[in-house]
Structure formats: structure tokens, C-alpha cells
Amino acid sequence: MTNRIDARFAALKAENRPALVTFIMGGDPDLATGQAILEALPQAGADIIELGMPFSDPMADGVAIQLGGQRALAAGQTLRGVLGMVEDFRRKDEHTPIVLMGYYNPIYVFGVDKFLAAAKDAGVDGLIVVDLPTEEDDELCLPALKAGINFIRLTTPTTDDNRLPVVLKNTSGFVYYVSMTGVTGAAIKSRGAVGDAVARIKSHTDLPVAVGFGIKTAEDAADIGRYADGIVVGSVLVEAVRTSLDNGKPTDRTVSAVRDIVADLASGVKRARA
Amino acid sequence: METDGLNSLRNGPDEHGRFGIYGGRFVAETLMPLILDLEAHYRAAKIDPAFAAELSDLSTHYAGRPSPLYFAKRLTDHLGGAKVWFKREELNHTGSHKINNCLGQILLAKRMGKTRVIAETGAGQHGVATATVCAKFDLPCTIFMGATDVERQRPNVLRMKMLGAEVRAVTAGAGTLKDAMNEALRDWVTNVDSTYYLIGTAAGPHPYPEMVRDFQSVIGTELKEQFFAAEGKLPDAVVACVGGGSNAIGTFHAFLDDASVKIYGAEAGGHGIDTDNGHAASMTGGRPGVLHGNRTYLLQDADGQILEGHSISAGLDYPGVGPEHSFLHDSKRVTYAPITDNEALEAFQLCTKLEGIIPALESAHGLAQLMKVAPTMDKDQSIVLCLSGRGDKDVESVGNYLGLL
């Protein structure tokens, strides 16, 4: 079967608009509601889904995603449970690409080969593992590529021209450009610099380039979506889950809170190049 | 890198920063160029005689090295076995071995043109040592410390503030060393251009475990010379406490290839190794995983979530350990054993009453291990403890435990 990520970017290129990539934490605020949020995303306008694998020590994440991970873990989420979410999702949606995002230790403890086989079976299309730089490609990146799962690499403002080819070498699916030096949810310092960086990366690769970290509104999406092939939004969605809660419990607003923001962001990517 | 022959245990790490399967560089891409740059600067500094000369001068005149090797006669008589010796790292400026590493790294930070320093601290000993060198070298510094540790190590918090450091209390998780390190990494990833991350233990991404070990190895090198001068031979055993394990690797490294020297590391056994999440003995009670930039033994659940652990000693209250210790544990060169909170408290009191030396609670774990081993050894044998820190910071919390307050 064709790679879902490649197919989705090809279709969007034909539409001349960037992809809306949405991050949610798998199992936040609880397992059932987390599943409902996941399943609401495509219709709300998400083109690609990043599903967070919660970790006790998310060193690259700001407070919003830290808390989302803690809620999911408190609800009993596990790596196996996140794979189960994808499996259930695939029964209803064969086309929307799903990228799992998180940290290496739970995968390492699960067993790399066992994890890759289970992820492939569940219908996972790609992985973003924050604490596996290219220097550690033997750990998971190369086995994942061999198993037919994309390994999406983060490039950052500190990745200079000498290093960029090294980082891009085993990247597949798309390149995730981190718009700033910082943790998820902080503010972008310079829009202009992001545009230059995307152009710089594109001079090194034919892969689509998605921009994430610090994108919060439809205006941000429209603005950055003019030159990026995708925009990634996470913290605002995870924060919307939190503010919808009543005493830590989901309410009837929880799913719709996320869905409304995604719909608004989708309007942003649609007018990015209009 | 050491070159003691093919079979030496002192050859690590390899060019990927590995000690066997342990170590490595498990960091976000944002930090990767920084640690490569740090490694390049460290390699250059290591072979620069001017760097060595400056560090040596500071060690002598600022930190007070060499630290004495002391024969603990009353403790020896009390235990009735091997002769007991202390390598007196607690007499260093700032009160622990931490200054050895901080002096080395602050010189490196200066060479690299960094204008701000951050550090994590558990017991506050590393925070104090960092704040001290930052005062001396006129660099602003921010110390990340778990909120729980801020409470139980108040005197050190005050020292850091007086030295001009900003102390940020971290409330995430259990508010201990692990959480402080997460927050320091988040700060570093945000302030990449200006900031030097001065890691206090022999853990984290390569080259930190190697670099911190190198700066701490002065402990074992001096000890070896001093012991030879006193007794004309090698000691029969050396002991140190292990949290992240910087004083331990600094003590052990000089002896790794001396097969006649038994080496013991005391882990924090907390309430006991069988108590779920009630100890911080990552090698005795954990298994390999990846956290804070390196693969090493970690306390974790079946899903790979990191546990908080527990120790009475803030400095040992960490669910991981430096990767070289994991390697030495697997290779069985070093015997790592858990010491409970109560055993450490007992050793703390005994040392204070018999020798007139109040040890840090961390070092008291090492002493408790020594108290188990020394009586099993012959009277003509010798065992040396790295007395890594002094216990002034602990008198209030120990007083509380003992009902003296």
C-alpha cells in the first residue's frame, strides 16, 4: 500500500495548501475521551495526526504538554494503549496518517522490534522521537525505516548547514522544523527567520517541511503556511483539553473544544495561499 | 581517553560516548550541536598545558587540594577489622568534592565564551559549588532545585543566594533531582547561545560523564599516592556513595585496573530495596533505560515511565546513575550495594561521635557500607572511604529524624 504520509502531502500539493498537522496526547484526559478526540480530528480539518506517547520526563515539552502527559498517565495510559488507540482509529479511517511522538525510553523498554511490528500492525505511519538525534540512528531510526515506518526528524535553528545533510539523511515522510530554540508552547521569536530557515532546508531536500512549536492561531497557520508544506499545532489543543475539564474530569465541552480550534486552524491553512 | 591497554577498564568511553552499551547522546536535536561543540572544546582544553596549569593552581590555592588522607583510629578500633581511612573531600572549599568538577567546567565555559551558567542540584552541594565558581568568575547563574530539596537543604539554598545565584524551585514530579534536571534541560534548550550547562554528576549526554569523571579523578589519583606514601602499598578496598556517582567514579577510576583493590559503591536503599518506589538504588533495583541523555540503569515501571524513588539523602535521591557505573556494575568490577536510610543515619552518628567529623548524609551511605565490609577484613588490611561532603547542611534534617529539635 502507498505510504499514507506521501499520499497526503501529494494530495495537498495538488490543492496548493499546506497540511494541518495536529498533536494531541494519547489518552488525555482519559482513555475514552482521548479516543473520541482522536477520532474527531480528521473531520475537524486535521490532515495529519501526531499522537503523543506520554512520558514521565518530557524534557523538550512546555507545561501544557507536560500536564497532558501526566493526565494520560494518571488515566492509566501505556505505550500499548497508544497503539490500541491507533488500531481502533484505523477501523474508521484508512487514510489519515498517524505519527507517534514521544521519547525513547518507553519504546526501548517495550523492545524496539516488538514495538515496530506492533506499530506497523496498528497502522502507524511515522515516528518522532525527540531524544534520538541522528547520532543514535542505529537505535530506532534504521530499524523503523526497515520496518516500513517513516522516521521524521526534527531540525532546529541550531542545525547549521554543515549538520543539515547529516540530519536529513535518514529522514522520511516530512521534515519537522522546530521554529525556535525552546520547549513546546513557547512563542516564536521571529517569523522572518522561520521563512528563511524553511527555504534553507528546502535547498537540501525534496521532502515536505512542516513547521511547529509556537503556532497558536489561524492567523499563525495562514502566515507560516504560505511557505511551509505543513504547520504543526499541539500545545493549544492540549491546553484546550485542560481548560474544558471540571475538577479534572472531562465535560461535554472537552471534545468540541479541541474540534473547534482545529476547525479554526483548518480555515487558516486553507487561506494560506489563497 | 585513557590508554592502559586493550583489556583496561579505563578505556571508556568510545567515540560515541559509550561505556559498553551505556552512555550515548540521547538529546533533542537543538542540543546536539551544543554538545558536539562542548566535546570539541573539551578535547582542546584537555591537551592544553595552560588549561591544566590554571586548573591546578585553582585546585591548590582556591579549593585547598590535595585533600588529606586521614587514618580514622577510633572507628578502626570500633569496627575491629581493617584499618579505616578517609579521603577528606569534605575539607575542600565549599564542603564537598563538587568543587573539583565546577572549577574544571567553569574554565571551559569561559574558554567557550559563554555568558550564563545553569546547573541542577539535589543536596545543594553542586549548586553551592557552581554558585561559588560563578561568583569568582563573574558569571550569572541559575540553579534548578526540586522544591522538596529546597525544603530539606535550606542552609545550602541560603548559601547559593548569598553567592548571587538565582535558585529556581522546581515543583514538577516529586520535586527532587530528576525534576531539577528536566527543568535545567528545558532552560538549556531555550537559551542555547548564551548558556553553559554545568552538570554536577558523571551522567547526562556524552561528553559529560567522561568530563566530570576526568575532573573528579583527582580524588583517586591523590588517594593512591597518599596511601602509598603512608603504607607503601595499594589499599585493599575503596568505598564511595553513588547517586549519579561523581565522587565514586572519581575515587574508583585510578584503581579500576588494580585487581587487588576491591571497590564498593553504596546506593541509596531508602526504606529498603523491597519497598516499591521507596529507594533510589538504580543498579540494585532498576534496569537499563534511557533518560537525561544517556542509557543507564534506571528506576522505572513496566511501561518505561521513570519512578521518583526515595532517599533520606537529597544528593542520592535520583532514579538513575552515571553510565560508567552501569558498565562497571555489569562487568562486576565494582560491587554496588544498597544502604537504607536508617543504616546511613547510624553511620552518620557514629562518625560524628567517634571521629568528630560530621559527614554529609550522602557520604554516610558510603560509611555504612564500609562498616559492613571492614569487620570482615584482616587488621593489616586497609579500606578507604571517600568522605565526599560535610554534613553541616544535614544537621537540621537529621536533628528532626532523631527527635533532637
Automatic annotation (TrEMBL), chain A:
InterPro entries: Aldolase_TIM, RibuloseP-bd_barrel, Trp_synthase_alpha_AS, Trp_synthase_suA. Signal peptide: none annotated. Pfam families: Trp_syntA. GO terms for molecular function: tryptophan synthase activity. The active site is at residues 50, 61. Its EC number is 4.2.1.20. One of its GO terms (cellular component) is cytosol. Tetramer of two alpha and two beta chains. NCBIfam families: trpA. This is Tryptophan synthase alpha chain. The gene is trpA.
